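batch job 7 of whatever, protein = cystathionine gamma-lyase
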Amino acid sequence: MENAPKPQRVPSSFQDSGGVKDPKTELRRDEEMRSFDSETRLETKAVCSQSKLKGLELTTPLVPSISVATTFSISKVDEVVECLRDGYIYSRNANHSCESAAHAINTLEGGVGTLVFSCGMGAITTTLLTLLKTGDHVIAPDPVYSGTYALMKSMLPNYGIEVTFVKACDIEGYKNAIKPNTKIFYGETPCNPCLGVLDLKAFADAARTVPSAISIVDSTFGSPYLQRPLELGVDISIQSCTKYIGGHSDILAGSMSTRDEEILFGVGEFLKQTGCCLSPFDAFLLLRGVRTLPLRMEKHSHNGLKIAQYLEQHPKISKVYYPGLPSHPQHEVAKKQMSAFGGMVVFEVADGLQGAKTLVDSVKLITLAVSLGSVESLIEHPATMTHGPELMTSEDRQKGGISDGLVRLSVGIENADDLIRDLEQALAKV
């Protein structure tokens, strides 16, 4: 029906004394200093993108300064509303350090705007709590990042929110799980830890069959350099910027980018109230990470493919999961929507639990540690570490395909042959 009201996607919960705020008039706008044409490549945008800093008309610092002020002076009390929208008044609401990092990430993501958070889980939790209310239904993948799994399995039901888990990357599974109250289609690609690849366009199309539903994808393993969910129709792209975008194991940060102004405004308002904002110091480091992201992702991807090929032919490895290998079940999907395949390599040690433990305990150049996406190579055993008993039961892991012999390797930017020699000597002990 032509005159049917538009389905409500963002709860109208942000009110002032004058009523519900209007995103069209209240949304903060960033202006890009550069003039990028349609042919400007992502690696150029990553280095050059810069938002125009307010109040600096004559000159602009090449590197935005760290804005440590918690509060900002105001010339006149009648200018408070204008400062809230176009300037700064209190750093929890906005400061130019965080806005500079958010603007650079958004330039790569291709959205109407990006928000930055204190960590990846801050981005995920704030976004979901903004968009959901009691009685809503979420469809999510299994396996999924363990922090997300714990949030959806244990916390959201406490607020009367229903969650259905489906096999990761199974579009028909999402379609079959739709209910009248479905509000969120949540995806992850490549998924953590088994590296399933979600067909982003098919996922977005499935979500659009439910008029009020919103599609969200955690794109951390790909980064906005290798894949751009928003361009394929997904409503929201989430990044744990702690990982590839930061890239140096020295910050915690997260981001939420969207192609919908109403969502951007709603999540931004909720962020102000929850207070899980990014610190200016971490925003400074995050922006620096954006500048080298293309170079690092190319090296991560080169090394990742070379090591995956090595492991696939090793007699002590029974299975390798890497989107760049023809043996990967979603290899064709990955080729279609990724410019390269990243640095995450997951594999099964033939000897199972003990073999996997021996391997990760025996590496010398590679570091045994959780997290991923940094310049150094990190290895971990999901069944006892990132997806261990503190977060998931053994039954939950088995349902998600996380076996006891599974090993997750975040390949860094070292020399690939050196990393292979390290894996060779460790595998000799298995």
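notes: The two ends are 65 Å apart (CA to CA).
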